Amino acid sequence: MKKKLFVLLMMICVTIMYPQANKGKYNAINDYLTVLVKDTTKTIVIVKEKISPNEALRLFSGGKLNNIPFSRVNGIEERLGGILEPLYKENDFQKMRKKYQNDANEGRSYFAKNTRWNSADFKLKTIFYETFDTIIFKRGKGIPIYRYTTQMIALSEPMYYKGRKYLVIAVGIGDTTPIGYLNNYIIIMKKINNKWQVIQRGEKYWVD
């Protein structure tokens, strides 16, 4: 009986703590959106699908998703982008990779499996939520649902780095024009004076 009661109490604690943990991480995203969206009265479009953790890890590391260390020249890593040393540490990256890496979403490796954003995750009220396929369809058909200057943002689920010291978020920025595209990069955030702030931005890796 005591064992069943203990298990029940643990389940209740996890149920309560899990949304609180997400709320903390999503506060970081909302803090960053206040930087991206200067005019909070303007409509923006959030891609419903979350950028996959695999893509976020690639952006962070500069292109790799394995446990093979980068080669070094004169003690400096040969990397094509991502987060730079000294914030990037191979051992810390590998811990994060093992925790968050998952099987690629078949045919849609850019997006995570079965996870989507919803209105409860964001504080901005002037947000439309669209699936990526719907956005592409509207582009292709030229349907003027949004103004052509409407900002479009894709985001990953935040990942903890170096314990809970930092948050890692992949970001894709574009617009809803017919020729629009997503410019991808990674950000590292740290809580400073009780507010999440970007301390480093890593540009997309490029492969020749």
UniProtKB/TrEMBL annotation:
Assigned keywords, A-Z: Signal
Signal peptide: 1-23
The protein, known as: DUF4829 domain-containing protein
Organism: Flavobacterium lipolyticum
Lineage, uppermost ranks: Bacteria, Pseudomonadati, Bacteroidota, Flavobacteriia, Flavobacteriales
